[in-house]
Specification:
The complex is a heterodimer of chains A (528) and B (194). By secondary structure, chain A is of the alpha/beta class. Chain A has helices at residues 2-13, 137-146, 159-162, 187-194, 196-210, 224-237, 257-265, 285-296, 327-333, 374-380, 392-396, 403-411, 415-420, 431-435, 442-526, and strands at 37-39, 46-49, 59-60, 67-68, 73-76, 85-86, 91-100, 108-116, 173-178, 214-220, 243-248, 280-284, 303-309, 317-322, 342-346, 353-355, 368-373. The radius of gyration of chain A is 35 Å and the shape is elongated. Chain B has helices spanning 2-27, 34-42, 56-64, 77-88, 117-121, 177-188, and strands at 103-107, 127-128, 136-137, 157-161. The chains are: A alpha/beta (528), B mainly alpha (194). Chain A binds chain B through residues 51, 56-57, 100, 103-107, 109, 328, 332, 336-340, 342, 344, 356-359, 413, 444, 447-448, 450-452, 454-455, 458-459, 462-467, 469-470, 472-473, and chain B through 40, 43-47, 55-57, 79, 123-126, 141, 143, 164, 166-171, 173, 182, 185-186, 188-194.
Chain lengths: 528, 194
C-alpha cells in the first residue's frame, strides 16, 4: 500500500534523487555537434540595443560621431537590475535610434550603431586580475557587474546579482549548467570541448566568491565527449575534489534552472522563490567562461558563441560572434543567399521567438539562430482543436501544473483562477504544447495570461495612485475653501464689528448731541 | 401568575441583549461605507465623470446606495462591471462595448496662454504651470479623463494615444485594436530579403 504511494510520489515529484517530473524527448537535430567554433568576421555595422538583459534599459554614454574602442562602456546601467553595454569593436558611432530587437511585440529599442574601423583596438583601462583568489569578493562582483555579464544561457539575468554572499542564505552548491537541452543548439557543447579550462576557472571564481564548498557540472548524456573533456580538465586542474561532474539522462527541459537543481540535488525550488533560498547557485557554462574573461583577462563581454543552424542552412556552424552583429550577416557567412521562404527563429525551437526582421542584432541572450524552411514551420503548425482531456500536458509539465485547466482559465480571462492554479510557476518550456494532440498553443495562453495579470496589477497601482492624488486634491480644495470661508467670516465679523462700532459711536454721538441739546435747552431753560 | 416569570425573564434577556447590541454598534462602528469603499477600489479612478457622477467615489457611493446601475463605468469596461456586479450580488448588465483606447492629454505649449483653467479642472493634479506660464501635463500620471479639454479657451490640448512600452508589453487579445496595431507595427519591419 505505502509502496504505491511512495512510487506515485516519486513519479510526480521526482524525489527519487534524480530527474524531475515530466519532460519530453524532442528530436535532437544537433547538426552542428562537434563542429569547431569558427570566428565570424567583423560585420560592416554593429547594432547595440540599449537593453540586452532582464531589467531596466541602459542610458547611452556616447554621442554620434564619437570614436569608441573595443570593450569601452557605451551605455550605463540604470537601477540595480541592469548591467552596462560595451562596444564590441573599435569604430565610430554613426547613429543612435530605435531598431528591431528579438521581441514578439515588434517594438523597437534605442540602439547604438557603430561602424567598425577594422583596427579592433581594445580599451585597456581594465586591468586583468589573474590572482583572483587574493581579491575580495565585493571587488570581483563589481568587476563582473562592470563587464556587463548577464546569463548567457538565454534568460539574461544580470550575473552579479546572484554572486552575493548572503548570511541568511549561504550557498552550499554551485551548479554549472552544461545541459543544453534545446534541440539544434550546440554552442555550449562546443564551448565545453574547446574552452574547458576557462569554464572551470570561471566556476572556481564563482565558488571563491560565494565561498561554496561543492560544485557540480551537469552535462546530458548526449554529449559524452564534452563530459570526458571536462572531467580530464578537472583532474588536470586538481579541482576534482571540490567539483564533481554529473552526467544526466537526456530530457527536455533539464536545462531549466529549477529542473536541473531538482535533478541534481532532489530539492525543489519553492514557488515564487529563487535557487539561493535552498542554497544553490547555478550558472551557464557560457557565463562561466565570460566570468573568467572578465576577471582574469579584464575583458567585458563583447562576443559570444552562437549556433547558426536550421534545415535551410547549407553550412550550419557554431560561431564566435561580436555582439551587435546583424543576423543577416551571420546567415550570409553560413552560406544563406536568399531569405525567401525562410523563417528565422531566435533561440532554440522550443523556447525561441520568431524573428520579424533579419536585421535584428546578436544580443547577450542569443544562443542560437535557426533558419527554417517556411514549409517545415508550417508543417509543425496546426489549427487548434478542442481539448480531449487526455492529460498528456499535465504528465509532461516539469513544473507539475495542469496546463489544460490553466489554458482554459486564461482563455476565458479568469486570471484570478489561473493564478490559483499557479500560472506564474510556468517556465514556458513548451513541453505541453509539444505533446498536445489537439495542437492547442498552451504556452501562448500562459504568456497571454501572465501579461494580462501584470497589466491588471499595473492598472490597479495606477488607480490607487490616482485615487490618492484625487483625494489629496479634494482635501486641498476643501481646506482652501474652508480657509476662504474663514477669511470671509473674519472679514464679515470685522465688518459687522466695525458697523456695530460705528452704530455705537453714532448712537453715542447722537446721545451726546441730544444730551447737549437737552442740557443747552435746560441751560436755556435755566436762564430765563 | 407563572407566565409573568417568563415575561420578566424574556424582558430581562431582551434588555441585556439590547444593551449589548447598542454597545457593539458604537464599539465596532466603521467609519464610512465599507461597500462603497470596496466599489471605489474596483473603479479605475480616472475621475472622468462619464458615469454622470462627479468622480469615482460619488459613483461608488451611488452604486452602494442602490441608486446607480453597475454598468456605468466606461473606462472600466466589462471587467470592472463584472467585479462590481459580483460584489453587489446583482445580475451583470451590458456594457457599451467600446474598446477603451488608453489616451493621455498633451498640451501644445506654443499655443498655451497660461490661463490655469485646465490646472483647476484636472482631477488628479497632473498639470503643472502658473499664470502666464506654459502649462504641461505629467504624462505618467494622466488618467485620460478629458476634463481639461472643455475649460481650455484656446483648444490647445490634444488627447494622444498612449504609446506602448516595451517593458509593459503583453500579448494582446486576438481581434482587438491592440492586436491589429501590433500586427501593423510588425508589418513595418523590413521583411527578410537579402
Amino acid at each position: 500500500m505505502f509502496d504505491i504511494f511512495e512510487q506515485l510520489k516519486q513519479t510526480f515529484t521526482g524525489e527519487s534523487g534524480h530527474g524531475f517530473s515530466g519532460g519530453i524527448h524532442p528530436l535532437q537535430n544537433k547538426r552542428t555537434a562537434s563542429q569547431n567554433i569558427i570566428t565570424c568576421p567583423l560585420p560592416p555595422l554593429l547594432i547595440h540595443p540599449m537593453k540586452q538583459h532582464i531589467g531596466e534599459a541602459c542610458q547611452p554614454l556616447v554621442k554620434i560621431g564619437d570614436h569608441v574602442l573595443r570593450g569601452q562602456k557605451i551605455a550605463k546601467s540604470q537601477g540595480y537590475l541592469s548591467v552596462p553595454i560595451h562596444a564590441s569593436t573599435s569604430g565610430k558611432v554613426i547613429k543612435i535610434e530605435d531598431h528591431a530587437i528579438p521581441h514578439p511585440s515588434g517594438l523597437g529599442m534605442p540602439s547604438i550603431f557603430i561602424v567598425p574601423d577594422g583596427l579592433d583596438a581594445a580599451d585597456e583601462s581594465i586591468h586583468p586580475m589573474p590572482n583572483y583568489r587574493s581579491v575580495d569578493a565585493v571587488e570581483l562582483r563589481e568587476r563582473i557587474r562592470y563587464a556587463g555579464l548577464a546569463g548567457l544561457g538565454g534568460a539574461v539575468f544580470p550575473t552579479f546579482i546572484k554572486l552575493v554572499q548572503d548570511k541568511q542564505h549561504p550557498i552550499d552548491v554551485v551548479v554549472l549548467n552544461g545541459i543544453e537541452c534545446e534541440p539544434w543548439l550546440t554552442n555550449d557543447h562546443q564551448l565545453m570541448l574547446e574552452k574547458s579550462h576557462e569554464i572551470i576557472s570561471g566556476m572556481d571564481i564563482i565558488m571563491h566568491m560565494v565561498e561554496a564548498k561543492q560544485g557540480i557540472i551537469a552535462i546530458e548524456d548526449n554529449k559524452p565527449d564534452a563530459a570526458l573533456v571536462m572531467q580530464n580538465t578537472l583532474t588536470e586542474m586538481g579541482l576534482d575534489q571540490q567539483i564533481r561532474l554529473q552526467v544526466l539522462p537526456t530530457k527536455y527541459p533539464q536545462g531549466g534552472e529549477k529542473q536541473l537543481i531538482q535533478s541534481l540535488t532532489g530539492k525543489q525550488v519553492p514557488a515564487g522563490r529563487l535557487p539561493i533560498h535552498i542554497g544553490v547557485l547555478s550558472q551557464n557554462v557560457g557565463t562561466s567562461k565570460a566570468i573568467y574573461d572578465a576577471v582574469c583577462l579584464g575583458e567585458p563581454i563583447t562576443e559570444r558563441v552562437i549556433t547558426v543552424s536550421g534545415d535551410a542552412l547549407a553550412k550550419p556552424n557554431n560561431m564566435r560572434v561580436r555582439l551587435g552583429t546583424p543576423m543577416r550577416f551571420l546567415l550570409h557567412q553560413c552560406g544563406l543567399e536568399s531569405l525567401d521562404d525562410i523563417r528565422l527563429i531566435h533561440g532554440g525551437p522550443m523556447m525561441g521567438e520568431l524573428m520579424r526582421s533579419a536585421d535584428i542584432p546578436v544580443v547577450k541572450g542569443s544562443n542560437g539562430v535557426l533558419a527554417m524552411w517556411d514549409k517545415s514551420v508550417k508543417q509543425a503548425h496546426h489549427e487548434e482543436e478542442p481539448c480531449i482531456r487526455c492529460g498528456d500536458c499535465g504528465e509532461v509539465c516539469p513544473a507539475g501544473l495542469m496546463p489544460n485547466l490553466l489554458a482554459n482559465h486564461c482563455k476565458q480571462e479568469q486570471f484570478d483562477k489561473a493564478e490559483d492554479y499557479n500560472l506564474f510557476d510556468c517556465i514556458e518550456c513548451g513541453a505541453c504544447s509539444y505533446v498536445c494532440p489537439s495542437h492547442i498553443p498552451l504556452v501562448h495562453y500562459f504568456r497571454f495570461g501572465k501579461g494580462q495579470v501584470a497589466q491588471i496589477r499595473r492598472e490597479k497601482t495606477f488607480a490607487d495612485e490616482s485615487r490618492a492624488r484625487s483625494d489629496s486634491r479634494e482635501l486641498r480644495i476643501a481646506k482652501e475653501n474652508a480657509a476662504k470661508e474663514e477669511k470671509r467670516r473674519v472679514a464679515r465679523e470685522k465688518k459687522e464689528a466695525r458697523a456695530a462700532e460705528a452704530a455705537k459711536k453714532a448712537a453715542a454721538e447722537a446721545a451726546a448731541t441730544e444730551s447737549e441739546t437737552t442740557s443747552s435747552a435746560e441751560k436755556e431753560e435755566g436762564q430765563p | 401568575m407563572e407566565f409573568l416569570y417568563a415575561v420578566a425573564a424574556f424582558s430581562l434577556l431582551a434588555l441585556v441583549i439590547g444593551v449589548g447590541l447598542a454597545w457593539a454598534s458604537s464599539y465596532f462602528h466603521v467609519q464610512g461605507d465599507p461597500i462603497a469603499d470596496k466599489i471605489d477600489s474596483l473603479l479605475p479612478q480616472t475621475q472622468c465623470g462619464q458615469c454622470a457622477y462627479p468622480g469615482c467615489r460619488p459613483y461608488a457611493n451611488a452604486v452602494a446606495a442602490g441608486e446607480a446601475d453597475v454598468n456605468h463605468c466606461v473606462p472600466g469596461g466589462e471587467r470592472t462591471m463584472l467585479e462590481i456586479a459580483d460584489l453587489m450580488g446583482v445580475q451583470p448588465k451590458d456594457v457599451e462595448e467600446e474598446e477603451a483606447v488608453p489616451v493621455v492629454a498633451f498640451i501644445r505649449e506654443d499655443e498655451c496662454i497660461g490661463c490655469t483653467l485646465c490646472i483647476k479642472a484636472c482631477p488628479v493634479d497632473c498639470i503643472i504651470g502658473a499664470p502666464k506660464q506654459y502649462h504641461t501635463i505629467i504624462t505618467d500620471h494622466c488618467t485620460g479623463c478629458t476634463l481639461c479639454l472643455e475649460p481650455c479657451p484656446v483648444d490647445c490640448i490634444d488627447m494622444l494615444e498612449k504609446p506602448e512600452l516595451l517593458e509593459h508589453w503583453s500579448w494582446p487579445v486576438p481581434g482587438t485594436r491592440r492586436a491589429a496595431l501590433g500586427e501593423e507595427r510588425k508589418q513595418q519591419h523590413e521583411p527578410y530579403h537579402v
